[in-house]
Amino acid sequence: MQALTGNEIRQKFIDFWAEKNHEIIPSASLIPVNDPTLLWINSGVAALKAYMDGSEVPENPKIANAQKCIRTNDIENVGVTARHHTLFEMLGNWSIGDYFKEEVIPWAWEFLTSKEWLGFDKERLYVTYHPEDLETKQIWMEKCGLAEDHVIAEEGNFWDIGAGPCGPDTEIFYDRGESYQNLDDSDPEMYPGGENERYLEIWNLVFSQYNHMPDGSYQPLPNKNVDTGMGLERMASVIQDTPTNFETDLFMPIIEQIETLTDKKYGQDQKINTSFKVIADHIRAVSFAISDGALPSNEGRGYILRRLIRRALMHGRKLGIHRTFLSELVPVIVEMMGEFYPELKENVQFVQDILLKEEERFHETIEGGEMQLNQLMADLKAEEKSEISGHAAFQLYDTFGFPLELTQEMAEEEGMLVDVAGFEQAMEEQRERARSARSDEGSMSVQSATLQSIDYQFDFVGYDQLSTNATIKHIVVEDELTSQLKANSEGYIFFNRSPFYAEMGGQVADEGGIFDGDQMLAEILDVKKGPHGQFMHKVRTFEMPLNEGQSYTLTVDRNSRMKTNQNHTATHLLHKALKDVLGDHANQAGSYVGPDRLRFDFSHFGKMGHEELKQVETYVNYMIENTLDVEIQEMPIDQAKAMGAMALFGEKYGDVVRVVNIGNESIELCGGTHVTNTNEIATFKLISETGIGAGIRRIEALTGQAAIADYQENESILHTIQQQLKVAQKDQLLHKIEQLQAELKESHSEIDSLTAKIMQNASGEIFEQVQEVGDLTYIAASVENQNMDSLRSLGDTWQEKAASNILVIATGQEDKANLLVLVDDATVAKGIKAGDLIKSLAAMIGGGGGGRPQMAQAGGKNPAGIPQMLAAVAEEIEKLA
Question: What global pTM score does this model have?
Answer without folding.
Answer: 0.69
